Amino acid sequence: MKLSRIALDGKPGVAISSDQGVRVLAGADLDTAVAGGEAALRELHATVERDGVSVSEGDLRFLPLLDRSRKIICLGLNFFDHASETGNAKPAFPVIFGRFASSLIGHEAAMIRPNLSDKLDFEGEMAAIIGTAGKDIPVDKALDHVIGYSVFNDGSLRDYQMMTPQWMPGKNFDATGAFGPWLVSADELPAGGAGLMLETRLNGEVVQRASTSDMIFDVANTIALLSTFLTLEPGDVLVMGTPSGVGAARKPPLFMKPGDVVEVEIERIGLLRNPIVAE
Question: Which residues pair with 122 in a beta bridge?
Fold first, then answer.
C-alpha cells in the first residue's frame, strides 16, 4: 500500500497510489489510520480505493506525511562513512536527537533557507513509522511494530547545529525538514527497509548514494534500544540517519542556496523533491 496526506482544491485528504493511478478521498485522515495500526491502514486504503476520485498526481499538494506524531526521533552518524567524513568515530551508542513537526514540509513544498544562516545542508534519510505501541521490545519482535516507511530530508543549519552538543537548534528551523510523499506499508518492502538504494541529488547531481543496509544501527535494533527508555507509540517517526556526502564535509563546503532543487529518492519507497527559497 502507498498512501499520502494531501490537499486537493484546498481540502485535506488522503491519496493512494497503485498501478491503476492515484485516487483521493477528501476528509480522510492518515494520522488516525496509522494510530489504529495495520488493520485501520488497510481499511483506509480500501475506502479511498472504493470511494475516492481519480486524479493526476500533479494536481495534488503534498503535506508533511504525518501531522500528529508525538515523537520524531532522529539518528545521527548512523552510517560509518558519514561518521568518518565528519571526523567522528563509529558510535557505540546511537546519536539521538529530536525534530518537531513544526519544522516539516511536504513533497514539492519550498524548503526555506533562513536569513540567519547560509549553511543549509541536505541529509537524505529513510524514515520508519511506528504502528503498534511498545516498551522493552525484543529485537526479534521489533519490526512487528513498524507500519511503514517513507523518505526524509533532515535539512540542517550547520552553524546553528554546532552551537550546542544536542544539535536541536540547527535541526528545527521552520520549513527545513521534508517528509514524504508516500507511506509505503512494511509488507511491501524488505524487512527493516534493508537493502534499498538511497540517493540524494542537488540540481540533478548525485551527492549521496548508499544502501540502507549500510546503517550502523538498523531499524530493529534501534526500536529495541529506544524502547528500553521510552514507550514507542503509533505515529512516532524514526529518522534513520544519512550516508556520507553531506555538504558540510566537502572541500569546499556545498550548502543549498535559493534556486536549488534537492531530491531524495529511496528505491521502492519514492522520490521527495523540494526547491530551496530564501526566507
Answer: none
CATH 3.10.450.50 matches 72-278: no
Measured from the Cβ of residue 137, the count of other Cβ atoms closer than 10 Å reads 22
Beta-ladder partners of 53: 24
pLDDT at 184 over 90: yes
Per-residue pLDDT tens over the stretch 89-114: 788 899 999 999 999 999 999 999 99
Domain-wise residue ranges, the chain: 2-62, 72-278
